[in-house]
Amino acid sequence: MYSGTWTTEAKKYFSKTNCVAYNLASDYLNGSPIRQDYLHTVLTWISDAEGIALEDYMAKHQHDTSANDLWMYFQNVINWVKTVFPNYRKYMKGLPWGIYYNRHKDEHYNSDELEARVAELEMDDDVTNNKGIYAYLLTGEEKHLNIRTFNEKDKLRKYNEQEGVCAKCGNHFAYTDMDGDHILPWSKGGKTEYDNLQMLCISCNRSNL
Questions:
Q1: What whole-number distance in Å separates Cα of residue 74 and Cα of residue 41?
Q2: Who's near 96: CB < 8 A, 6+ residues apart?
Q3: Buried b (16+ CB within 10 A) or exposed e, 163-177
Q4: Which tens digits make up the pLDDT trace of 169-182?
């Protein structure tokens, strides 16, 4: 549908065995260039950067005689990743680096400090999703880390200890209407351990989010 000079040129970079995109960034991309996975990935990224649908981006450039802009954008993304996070880890593969680049390329980061934080988070038993470390460091949103939750046995024990009373509002609730909550938040060093557990009603717990 979008075949033309531009598509032919783009495939030279992203759709051939041992193409330049593969040689530059195979450690960071999922899929195979000959199956158009690389091309689809970079098109998803650059269309996001321009705030348009992927199909609209392709239609916009269908008759261009060169795909240099696409290739330069891709190089900028990968060079940014390698500069901000210079120590490669296998779970960096397949992350939406272009989306991260689009959102955060103008921010200033200290790579040494980020590397130290990555290593710290890798060793944190409460972090259950290492692939989310990079999104967390860029956005500050804990949801990317899938912080370990309290188990049902400990929550029921704490519920009985509190006699069903919410530790925040002081009202009584059924167990099913309460959540386990960190007394000292994980972001401030609190661990998912019994001594750091309190039961809050769902309303109070959500108001803490």
A1: 10
A2: 45
A3: ebbbbbeeeebeeee
A4: 999 999 999 999 99
The mean pLDDT of the chain is: 94
Condensed to tens digits (0 to 9), the pLDDT of residues 3-25 reads 778 999 999 999 998 999 999 99
Tokens of 31: 């899929």
pTM, two decimal places: 0.84
Rounded to whole angstroms, what are the CA distances from 75 to 8, 23, 70? 19, 11, 9
Side chain identity at residue 123, one-letter code: M
| Contact partners, residue 116, CB within 8 Å, separation at least 6 | none
Which pair of tokens denotes residue 37?
């996975």
Q: Assign domain 152-207 to its CATH architecture.
A: Orthogonal Bundle (1.10)
> What does the block give as tokens for 202?
């769902």
**Structure tokens belonging to residue 76:** 């900028």
- Count of residues in the chain: 209
Q: Where in the chain is the domain with CATH 1.10.30.50?
A: 152-207
